[in-house]
Fold each of these.
Amino acid sequence: MRAFTQHQGVVAPMDRSNVDTDMIIPKQFLKSIKRTGFGPNLFDELRYTDEGKPDQDCSSRPINPDFVLNQDRYKNASVLLARRNFGCGSSREHAPWALEDFGFRVIIAPSFADIFYNNCFKNGLLPIVLPEDIVDRLFQEVDQAEGYQLAVDLEAKTVTTPSGDTFTFEVDDFRRHCLLNGLDDIGVTLEDAELITAYEESRRKTAPWLFGAGS
Amino acid sequence: MAGKTLYDKLWDDHLVKQRDDGSALIYIDRQLLHEVTSPQAFEGLRLAGRKPWRIDANIATPDHNVPTTDRDRGVEGIVDPVSRIQVETLDKNCDEFGILEFKIKDQRQGIVHVIGPEQGATLPGMSIVCGDSHTSTHGAFGCLAHGIGTSEVEHVLATQCLVQKKMKNMLVKVNGKLGPGVTGKDVVLAIIGKIGTAGGTGHAIEFGGEAIQGLSMEGRMTICNMSIEAGARVGMVAVDDTTIEYVRNRPFGPKGEQWDAAVDYWRTLHSDSDAVFDKVVELEGSEIQPQVSWGTSPEMVAGIDGKVPDPEQEADPIKREGIVRALKYMGLQPNMAITDIKLDRVFIGSCTNSRIEDLREAAAVVKGRKVSPILKQAMVVPGSGLVKIQAEQEGLDKIFIEAGLEWRDPGCSMCLAMNADKLGQGEHCASTSNRNFEGRQGFGGRTHLVSPAMAAAAAVTGHFVDVRELMN
Ligand code: SF4
């Protein structure tokens, strides 16, 4: 996994609450058996005016000029500013894959849905929770200044605005550690293989009916 | 010290390691796999040269992409080549790693969340995961069941553990009795309407109270299924006689002496009377009406005697904007009666409502009636091959067909329209599924979430109607 330490980038505002994973990446694109290539279909139904199909060249599709990511000033955005309960709905990891493939590294919102939040960390994408009043303020600042950028430091757990205001955020130590070092958490877990085996052996004794059923 | 909640007990029973940083390794007893969220996980295993930790903990089936007609042709019958590759990839991966799979032509094939309980592959006290957010369904059995992402599917395949941080405890208590014609679906929609789609975020919800205890396992599964629509990854109901009777004699369940030992353990799977919850929400069962969703989020619901809301009346600006957007997408006017919403299609199916009891409830309403000529389509998609067989033995298929509903083969179908079953642009659908997001059932489609009985009532009238009026 790609490590994340610091990042500075253009901010795109996604000004609606409860953005669900069906909206982030519609189901027809989940048929892929790969992890990459979802970027052109990120927010497909909002971004284009026709119905998207898998394996289609998106460069000639009719676009919705009002949609934020179609506006020139946000085309190279790497920080997504969002509203409450971002990423609600299904567990599809295709949602963070699509955001990452598009070029996003950071998502800032007042709250996230649990599974989405968790999936982001597995893909080098940093979801940051900031209080609603600060998010409101960032929305205003982004709107007023073209090319508005935020600087994020995961080590220090801070977000810094162009005017130098700094906000701190919370993140679990384990997730932060894995992301800072680009660690594969399967490798980390397997360091405890002996503990897992010991647990399994005792469970086999106390609940033998849980073993052997699926083979 | 205060007693333990059901969640506390399940957590403690599966704890392999508590790390200093607050994260923990939780042992997973069962993983269910399907074709959409597993290919990249198997690929990841192969790339890293890893093997599955415990083959017999896994069970797989294709469900999202399978067609609901023409199933004799098996995988060949999947017209869309991209869908076909995904199903074939699941078959290949399961064959390669020796994982038990109910393939497309197996009569045990079905929606993962229907087949787990049906086979006894879901048992009380288990920890269960699946790369699907509706894995919370299995919590109806007093299980710790998490929906997970694909990286976690790979992690569980490789280590038999999930990295978790303990969630907070939330109790949703539904007091008293439900009225006639009011089902588990109406209860869960009313709960989500009350607490909102983020109301359970960060919490494991236990559903309790007299109304929940009075429900069948099907009804409890419907409620736990939609925990995720209330923001909670985990939903649960305590084990009682209803649970144990449902599990008895299931193919993968314990037998003989092991059965007795298992039942002794299962009887402990309830919250202690002095357990403390971080959050408690109470509803009165007798006040819950049959529900209909009018908007594009499952919290946008109303009772059947209610009205579409007026954004002008909403004080919170973010919510107001959400209502305006939803009404525009849904093509509805503020203050119109729910019963005035006209329909184009009816879908009875999905992991929320495609079990035998759901089909019985729908059949009881359409029996002796005809599908309204206003509708373009009304379809029934059983949750598994075995549900289909049982329904046919009970003659439900004939009731549906005589009334003019289509009787299909099992799968996810129009719940998310990854197969050929979908809504056209602008069409309104009364659907027994769980999500009414924009485009969920087809590009530009408009979904209204309801119970099977309410969907059946809508099918025979062409618009929403209080099913209790048809029950007299
Ligand atoms: S029926 Fe719908 S919600 Fe359930 S697993 Fe299938 S697609 Fe997901």
Amino acid sequence: MGDRTVNRLVILGVAASDAHVVANQLIAMHLRHHGFHVVNLGACTPLAEFADAWAAHPDAVAVIIGSLNGHARQDLDGLAELRAAGRIGCPVVVGGNLSVGSTKDPQLRQRILDLGVDHVLDDVTELVPLLDTLGAHIVEVRGG
Amino acid sequence: MGELAALELDRRVLAELPDWSDIIGHFKAAGRPSVVDVLRAADRTGRPAVQPRCGVADHAAMLHLLGELEQADPAILSVTIDSHTRLKQFDTAHRLLTTRPADLNGYPLVAHGWARGRELVSSVSAPLEVRHGSPDARQLFAITAASGITSFEGGGIGYNLPYSKNVPIRDSLRAWQAVDRVCGELAAEGVVIDRELFGTLTAVLMPPSISIAITLLEAIAAAREGVRCVSLAYPQGGEVHQDVAALRSIRPLARRYLGDGVEVFPVLHEFMGAFPRTTGFANSLILLGGLVARLGEAAKVINKTNHEAYGLPDAPANGLGIRTTAVGASDLFDFVTLDEDRVAEEAHWIQREVGELVEPVLAAADLAGGIAAAFADGSLDIPFSASAHARSAVVPRRDRAGAIRYGGHDGLPFSASTRRRNAELLGDQPGRPLIDLVSEDIFYFIGKESATSAGRAR
């Protein structure tokens, strides 16, 4: 209790219409294993809750939003406004299965980026290397 | 109505229920075996009772489904409740029942009411259990009791953490305490309700000692309210020695922590994780479930179906699941014996781990407070929690034999020897990303299926 560990903090969650818990917990596990402190907001997280979490942890390296049910565009609608209002001040990373159906729209990545996302990932193995490039903020987190 | 008072029901809800003496009288006049009678009989014969999950929204369709499944000769039948009713969205359930019943994923018992519940009970010879997933099941339980249904699944931990994102554990424990108090009142009148506790939890790589520790704590809480019969359900993990050892550990652990005043039945839930897709492999896993239940001396086994990988089963698939499970539990496989030394060693360590998990919680003056505090500080935890009220810092992994071990256990109060044994059994981990290794463990049976000719030929 009370001992302090230096750690990089990320905010993680699944998009508002998406209940995929297991993939979310696997990614949390993966990030913790790589030394990140994970604030996991879990499944079905509205954008406003990501903003509230950033307000509570303004030193976060990134907000990471998973979307596996193919409704990323709908769930991320409103992100640009939140960012313009300064309510998420760190990079936003989105990954998962971003549209319904097995044929992918080549324009989709750009459309997601246009919603106010900084990085779109195709594979979870890209996540830690990306965060390492974003990891300038070293924050102190109370351990125990 | 004093005897239902613990449920703190709305006056309008109470007004529609039969009075207490009618509820008791209806149970006693049923003239048919209750779930506890069936469990006792299964225990005597050493052949576990087989029970399917089943629930459709429309009343006539539900009667028809129960009738169809009864032809497969299950010992107990289920009334699986829809998600809206589980979350107390009774108005939504009622509206969908009249407009789009196909949008309900179970039978909305509260919307139908207790008179129809009684019709379900009298339509089949097997006794019924209500299965759901409610963090607060007080109103559902009142209708269940008024229906004359003699078994009710759930508990303040197991029906919260896998199902709800943000219900405080204290709140769900308090709601279930009320249900258990009424079960205690019924027991005092001679009506024994079987209370099944959902140790399957999130159904993904659940370490046996977490499953049993949690159902044991719920059982202790229930017994303190007067519950006289508990079924502790354990999810088939996939490694036979570990599964058999876990099932056989339930009674000795219950004797140690629960005493003799409560009847305890071990229950197996057939594999609840990522299910094989081919008919042959799926049926074989279901058969294995019946065998494991019998070898583990379970009183009951809940069957799966070969539709599991695709969604809710239809009646013929469910009937086949019941029959296949019953064959697995039959004397056809009495020639199968296990390495009993290996089972005993597993059982020793499961019981030790469970002790290490529950004893600090039981030392708290107030059990519900102790449970909530333990989840808050991570000394109790479950993997893959849907709820924000468990940390999910546990990293479950399979060892080379397929048994589920602790690859990481931040916060769990394990002894040095428990930690050492888990680490030794997992051995050196391949130098691949943890997320890939855990995913492979989750998709264990699908991996095995792909490796067989049946899987390749698909």
